[in-house]
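Researcher: Please translate sequence to structure tokens.
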Amino acid sequence: VLWGNRSMVTAQTEARRHYIDGNYASARDVLESELDRLNSLGQKPNGDMLAFLGNTYRQLGELDKSLDILTQAIESRPKSHFSHYGFGRTLLAKGEFAAAAEELQLALKLGAPQATTFDLGHALVRAGDKDAASKALQSAIAVTDEPQQVLMTQFWLHQLDGQPLPSDDLISQGSSYWQEEAARFADTPYGKALYEDLRVLSSGQS
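Model: Translation complete:
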């Protein structure tokens, strides 16, 4: 069993390197191979590994697979904020905005990093809950410094509350992430909404 645990950790470490480099297919292949190995031995993967695989499927645009594996991760570790966060992110990508907001709120209650308030605000913006979205995004401003998140936080708060538009420099720094995200999920309501946000940002409209 100890060897099995060591192998699982090694596989996750290798997969994480691929994931960080943006090689999501390679990360998936490593995790799926480890899952097959565990199944052949009659062993169960841990919840974190399942959540990691579910997140990887999302990055590959395989949203149904992502939800299925993340559901298994939650069943394995019901109080894992990591699993609930991943589940919420996949619901968001599918365009199930209200359900995504509920899941992200639960992740925060279970101890997810406060930067999760950005994702919650994003889901609430898409769900049309303006007051709750504004509150979440105001919280996010204080806890995130990633350009892509700061960009959209300022943009949505401009739309919701009339706050200043993001600077041209910030638009330049933060847009590429969202362009990739919109392309990845182009067939979902989420991807279509991102394309519209990017169009408005690039045109300088409010």
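Researcher: Any highlights?
Model: The chain has one domain: 46-203.
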